[in-house]
Write a structure and sequence with these properties.
about 130 residues; alpha/beta; 5-stranded mixed β-sheet; two-stranded antiparallel sheet; 23912_t:CDS:1
Length: about 130
């Protein structure tokens, strides 16, 4: 079981103050700092196969051997599947505690991203006055 897990949420606010509009940009911006420091044992991205592949490409280019998984949500915005590093879809099945753990990770990183966006938006709005 990984002991250092990072979650990544790619978010934007009405196409303004875009923070890491693409997963590749997010990973490339965030992960070079791990070249000299402890790196995560697992990277969780909010998204499916394309997001997992994009993160893997950047990590490979940075020579950072970090496994990546994706968390897929259904039309009701509920996390329903894991995309493994091998791009295999796994259902949670009866493992509600595992689903809850990953859902909590997603919600926390999403909350952080939204708060960061609001801060950027306020700064931009004040500069335009």
């Amino acid at each position: 079981m990984p002991y250092y897990i990072e979650c990544l949420d790619v978010s934007n606010l009405y196409k303004q103050d875009v923070v890491a509009a693409r997963i590749k940009k997010a990973v490339a911006t965030h992960y070079p700092k791990f070249l000299a420091k402890e790196r995560p044992n697992l990277l969780i991205v909010d998204g499916g196969k394309e997001q997992v592949k994009a993160a893997q490409q950047v990590l490979k280019a940075l020579a950072l051997p970090v496994p990546v998984i994706g968390l897929v949500k259904n039309e009701k915005h509920r996390t329903t599947k894991i995309i493994t590093s091998e791009l295999t879809e796994l259902d949670f099945g009866p493992h509600e505690r595992i689903r809850n753990f990953f859902t909590n990770c997603q919600e926390e990183v999403h909350r952080y991203a939204l708060n960061f966006h609001r801060k950027l938006h306020r700064q931009t709005a004040l500069q335009n006055i």
